[in-house]
Design goal:
mainly alpha
Length: about 100
């Protein structure tokens, strides 16, 4: 049911609107009935947002492709760096023997 239809078809609100307003308490009753009707219509008719932490609304297939590309590039860089460090360690290990010969 749509919001406007719900508010228009609410029996409590319709009866409160048809009553004659003779004092301040009648206005208070009408106001509280109106507020309750609007709150009830809102809770029944409007969607309720809920947080879903695993969903990223800004994420797209382009970002997925970019992320995969950057991950591959980083893994390659780490692999190359590891090889460089290993060769440096080998050189450091050989350095004392090279110095002893001279």
């Amino acid at each position: 049911m749509r919001y406007k239809q719900f508010v228009n078809s609410n029996v409590d609100l319709q009866s409160a609107l048809t009553k004659a307003i003779s004092c301040e308490s009648d206005i208070d009753v009408l106001y509280s009935t109106f507020v309750k009707t609007v709150q009830l219509a809102t809770s029944m008719c409007l969607p309720k947002p809920c947080f879903k932490g695993h969903i990223k609304p800004y994420w797209s297939t382009q970002l997925t492709n970019n992320h995969k590309s950057m991950t591959r590039a980083r893994n390659e860089w780490v692999s190359n760096r590891r090889e460089q460090l290993q060769s440096i360690e080998i050189c450091k290990a050989r350095l004392p023997t090279c110095l002893q010969r001279n």
